Amino acid sequence: MTALTLSTAGAATLRADALVVGVAKGAGSKSGNLVLAPGAEAVDKAFDGKLASVLATLGAVGAEGELTKLPAPSGLKVPVVVAVGLGPVPDKEDAYDAEALRRAAGTAARALAGSQKAGFALPAASVEDAAAVAEGALLGSYAFTAYQGGENKLAPKGAKAKDSGPKLPLAEIALVGAKPRDKAYKAAVERALALAEEINRARDLINTPPNDLYPESFAAVATAAGKEHGIKVQVLDEKALVKGGFGGLLGVGQGSAHGPRLVKLAYTHPKAEKTLALVGKGITYDSGGISLKPAGHNETMKCDMSGAAAVFAAVVAAARLGLKVNVTGWLALAENMPSGNATRPGDVLRMYSGKTVEVLNTDAEGRLVLADALTRASEEKPDAIVDVATLTGAMVLALGNRTFGIMANDDAFRTSIHEIAEEVGEASWPMPLPADLRKGMDSPTADIANMGERMGGGLVAGLFLKEFVGEGIAWAHLDIAGPAFHEGAPYGYTPKGGTGSAVRTLVRLAERTADGDLG
Fold it and tell me: How far is residue 102 CA from its own chain's centroid?
């Protein structure tokens, strides 16, 4: 993991491999209107006040995602200056948007992969600005290299490998211009570090190939983290699931050689007054089961446990931050495979709640494992439940690849989560649960079917889950099918592959709950 420090040195005296400054688009959005962001003053002085004009000559306009490298003049202790675009200049001086700072810092950190140390002299006039830069830089530094750069046994003895493997992430980030001796700044940086480390842990899990990450091995990771951070972990294996009557988990997992698991992680605080339950869909690989996915839809299905990864990361982050709230995570883990033992379309499963479900499509499996976990979580009477899942392609069609949908049984709670997500920089949108769509899941054989109308499929899935939430408990469902796994080129602090979507929202929700503002 990349190290993070609050530098006591200024931009002119910091010794590092590179120094990052911000630039923005002035009025008219032309290169001649390039504006240097706060933090770049010492660098501009070293350029004799001509930094903006030099950058403009090189084509910089300050657009978000833009990055320009140039040799540093003799007045600086670094060899390279990196100017990163922040987008339009804000209306109020020093009021740069936190998300713009995160993305700019992430862009710069990615570009500096392979470097030992870089100074970030982006706007840091407030604690919030410093935290945003720290988060963005740490998240942008992420790289998944566990399966790359190994020894080539086919190479002749004594020969040097032509490919030295992937570039390692930026090793150290030094925040310049913050207040290193200020307790508030220190706390903000410590929070950013803990949060980023857990998001990156979630990314690692999502990116791990399914031959290495399956229900049992995921449960082992959770158990080890629990021991490290004082979280009580309980794992229900196949025998325990059969004894408990968890028909949804068992039905989805019975086609695989890797049996399902239900993992409970319980973080408690002695002064907590509220309890928050988080439930994550953990399909470690989704072939679709007997309702097999078509060619071209299987290659990224290792990411179908992104909801469980987000819940796991959020519980550990809450423990590391010592939040005054009880947070219980439920990881509903299974591998959905076709075999002679697999659940068939037309089978009826008896769920943990006692309800029966007719399985019309085995590729609508996430709602089955979540249903069991939601019922189990409801038994403990938490103040609120939030489930997170890569649940439906319909949600991607509705909101695209970067925005997750929010459904809830309580409008105020849904609004609160939407506000929290926007606050922490995670794009989201509130979605309805139309009662008329419930009729489409009526079954002549069972209490409910796992499929309903095709149109509005993401909402139908939410209505299905709602059936398994305990009476009187505020509940929200986050469908992160779009933003959980990024298949395009990296941007900002978002890497290719697993993103850790929803972790920041869940952690901020836990913080608000600890402060008595559940929403």
Answer: 14
